[in-house]
Amino acid sequence: MKRTVWCAAALAAVIWLGASPSASAHAVCGNRVFPATLTMDDPGVGDELSLPTIQYLPIPATGGNSAGHSVDYGFEWDKTITRDLGFAVNDDYFTQHGGAQNLHGWDNLTVTLKDELPCWDTHEFLASVGVIRNFARTGSSQLINAGAIGNVSYTAPTLYLGKGLGDLPIGYLRPFAVTSELSRQFSDSPAISPDVWAYAASLQYSVPYLQQHVKALNLPSFMGRLVPIVEVSLSNPDRGTNTGTIAPGLLYEADTWQLGAEALIPATHATQQSQGTGFIVQFHLFLDDLLPNSLGKPLFDTDLWQ
Amino acid sequence: MSPRYFTAIAFAASLFATAPARAHAFLDHASPAVGSTLPTAPANIALWFTEHIEPAFSIATVTDAAGQRVDRGDAHVAADNPAELEVGLKPLPPGTYTVHWHVVSVDTHTTEGTFNFDVGK
């Protein structure tokens, strides 16, 4: 037990090493706060934890296979290295009941390195560049053998953009914002698993922005923290069919956390054949607010772009 | 309890127990209210934030439609409320005015914002 206590103390000490010069921000640019999106990444770098992200998808009966459903339990941890450079680690535990067969196991691990470019605050414009690396064969062999997850790793240079419409002359349109993500997934073995273009975009209307910067409407506190949103994600492989979803939903922005729920509607014919309309829910913690002196601050208190 | 679980619990407890949650300071409400129209000019502006703010690094200014400062340059955190920022105003003729605020919360997060209000329109 004594050794265990020392281990715990050492771990805590590592976290507390060094002074706390300043905490990092989540994706804030001028008047705009870009919330965490559920089916795509936001345009900023931050200290955040999505735990859990739960996705439910019904599986239609096809070709002699019975109907079923899949449930995915995911997490993502985002950590800042400097104030504008961070990495993310994400994975998920996949379960499928019915369909072609019952399945369960861990997905392949994904790691992202992301750099946030200087924000253009008067126009609420934020951009980041990143590299996503998916490590094949880190997930369940059962899922790999069933073809549920990839058996070839890929690397994806990715561009993230966010633009708030706060510079529009019409007040009630100013709470709108759009974000987008564009990436090219380069497969380690394109002959086995093709390269893929992946696109995603969101359109969001921030009621907090409306209340704070346009017009205080004296809404009930709960309504004043809502962000209605629609996210669209499309995947276009060099060989094969296009897949994608349209995800309308609602985000609730608390001071230190966010709760989001969206429907997952198939956006292409191929997607419709493999899944029905499901949903995704996510509980998201802002570690920079919850733990500003430990996990929520950058490892190095500097900016790459200063 | 196994040593592995004890270590994990001690680790998590050390993080959460000693660091009270302090979020970004966002505007909760203001007087005059955001986007409001007043029949007569107010004598000062008051801004209430969602978190306590640092007096040395928190400021508010007010400009008219031509971009000229119309505040008295005396922005300060209220003595009885560390989450309230006040600034006095010069006499204002009818027009549209913009409040600019820039604050640092007590856990060093920086936030900023603007909003308009109208007088006598």
Overview of the molecule:
The complex is a heterodimer of chains A (306) and B (121). Chain A has 5 helices and 15 strands. In chain A, a hairpin with a 6-residue loop joins strand 3 (48-59) and strand 4 (66-80). Chain A is mainly β and 306 residues long. The model of chain A is unreliable at 1-25 (pLDDT under 50). The termini of chain A are far apart. The longest helix of chain A is centred in the first third of the chain and has 15 residues, at 2-16. In chain A, 12% of the residues lie in helices and 47% in strands. With 121 residues, chain B is mainly β. Helix content of chain B is 12%, strand content 37%. Chain B has 1 helix and 8 strands; from the N terminus they run H-E-E-E-E-E-E-E-E. A 4-stranded antiparallel beta sheet of chain B has the order 1-3-6-5, with no helix packed on it. The radius of gyration of chain B is 20 Å and the shape is elongated. Chain B starts with a helix and ends with a strand. Chain A binds chain B through residues 1, 3-5, 7-9, 11-12, 15, 20-23, 25-26, 28, 30-31, 33, 121, 171, 208, 211-216, 255-256, 286, 288-295, and chain B through 3, 6-7, 10-11, 14-16, 19, 21-24, 26-27, 29-30, 33-36, 50-51, 107-115.
